[in-house]
Specification:
By secondary structure, the chain is an all-alpha fold. It has one domain. It contains 15 helices and no strands. The two termini are 32 Å apart. The relative contact order is 0.22. Pfam families: EamA (PF00892). It is a multi-pass membrane protein. Keywords: Membrane, Transmembrane, Transmembrane helix.
C-alpha cells in the first residue's frame, strides 16, 4: 500500500510542474521576461516553503549536509532557467516535447550511476510515453512548427537538468525530513537563479506588484509542491520509475492550455494524452497483476 502512496506523490509532483507552462505564457503575454518570471517564482516559492517548514519538526544538520543540499538544489533552478528560455524561442508544445526527453535520460542516468538496468517493463513504458508525448505535443500535426537551434538546445538542457534533479531527489540525504530537505533544495535553486539571471528589475515596486500573482502561482506549483512530493516519493522509487511518473506533466499542461488559454486541442493530442497515461500505468502496475488480468478466466 505504501508503494502506491509514493507513486501518487511523484505523479502529483509531475502534475504540478504541468501547471507552469500555461502561467509562464500568460506572464510573457503580460510583458514580463524570462529573468523576471524565473526570479519571482523562486523568490516567492522559497519564502513560502520556508514558512511551511517552520511549523514542522526539523532535524539538526551539519554544515556539510546543508551545503550538499544547497548545491543539489542548483539543477532545480537550472531547469527553470533552461525551460523558460526554451519557451521564449519555441512553441510551447515543442518546448515541452524537448523537456520530455528527461524520461529516457532519467532511466539512462539510473543505469549508469546506480547500476540499475532498465527492465523490459520500464523500457516499454518509456517507449509508450514518448510516443504519447509526441502526439500530445502535436509533433505530427499538419501545421508548420519552427524548430530553432537555440530553443532546441535550451529544451535539451532543461531535460538534462531535470533528470539530475530527479536523481538527487532519490539519493541525497534521504533521512532529512521531506519539508526541510525541500526548503534547502529551493534555496539552492534560488541562489543559482539569482547568480545567473540577476533579476534586478524586480527591485522596481510597480513591476514587483504586477508580477506577484504569477510569482505566487509559479512558486507554489514549481518550487513548493514538487520538491516536497518528490522528497517523499523519489527515494522509494528511483529516478527511472520517477521519470515515467512525472510524465503526468504533459496531460495537465494540455488541459490547462484548453481551459485557461482557450487553445484548440485536437483528437490526436487527446490520443497522445491517453497513451501517456497508459504508459504510466504500464510502468507501475506489477507484472503479475497485469498477467493475471489478461488471462482468460476458466469456465466452470
Amino acid at each position: 500500500m505504501k508503494s502506491w502512496i509514493y507513486i501518487s506523490c511523484v505523479f502529483l509532483g509531475g502534475c504540478s510542474f504541468g501547471v507552469l507552462s500555461t502561467f509562464v505564457k500568460l506572464a510573457y503575454e503580460s510583458g514580463f521576461n524570462m529573468s523576471e518570471v524565473t526570479g519571482i517564482q523562486f523568490v516567492i516559492g522559497t519564502i513560502l516553503i520556508w514558512i511551511l517548514a517552520l511549523f514542522f519538526n526539523k532535524k539538526k544538520l551539519s554544515l556539510n549536509q546543508i551545503m550538499k543540499l544547497l548545491i543539489c538544489g542548483f539543477p532545480m533552478g537550472l531547469t527553470g532557467i533552461f525551460y523558460y528560455y526554451s519557451l521564449e524561442t519555441l512553441d510551447a508544445s515543442l518546448a515541452i516535447l524537448f523537456l520530455f526527453q528527461f524520461i529516457w535520460i532519467g532511466a539512462l542516468v539510473e543505469w549508469v550511476i546506480l547500476k540499475h538496468k532498465p527492465t523490459t517493463q520500464k523500457t516499454v513504458s518509456i517507449f509508450i510515453v514518448l510516443i504519447g508525448s509526441s502526439l500530445a505535443a502535436s509533433l505530427f500535426s499538419s501545421g508548420e512548427k519552427t524548430i530553432g537551434l537555440e530553443g532546441t538546445v535550451w529544451g535539451i538542457l532543461a531535460a538534462c537538468s531535470y533528470s539530475v534533479f530527479l536523481v538527487i531527489s532519490s539519493m541525497v540525504e534521504k533521512e532529512v525530513p521531506a519539508l526541510q530537505r525541500s526548503a534547502i533544495f529551493s534555496t539552492g535553486g534560488l541562489l543559482i537563479v539569482v547568480l545567473i539571471v540577476k533579476p534586478f528589475s524586480l527591485m522596481d515596486t510597480t513591476s514587483l506588484f504586477n508580477i506577484a500573482p504569477y510569482g505566487i502561482l509559479l512558486g507554489l506549483f514549481g518550487v513548493v509542491i514538487p520538491p516536497i512530493l518528490f522528497s517523499i516519493g523519489m527515494p522509494h522509487l528511483g529516478p527511472g520509475t520517477g521519470s515515467i511518473l512525472t510524465a503526468s506533466e504533459l496531460p495537465v499542461a494540455i488541459l490547462l492550455s484548453l481551459f485557461v488559454l482557450n487553445e484548440t486541442v485536437d483528437w490526436i493530442q487527446w490520443m497522445g494524452v491517453l497513451i501517456i497515461l497508459l504508459g504510466i500505468v504500464w510502468g507501475n502496475v506489477p507484472i503479475n497483476f497485469r498477467t493475471n488480468a489478461l488471462k482468460p478466466k476458466s469456465i466452470k
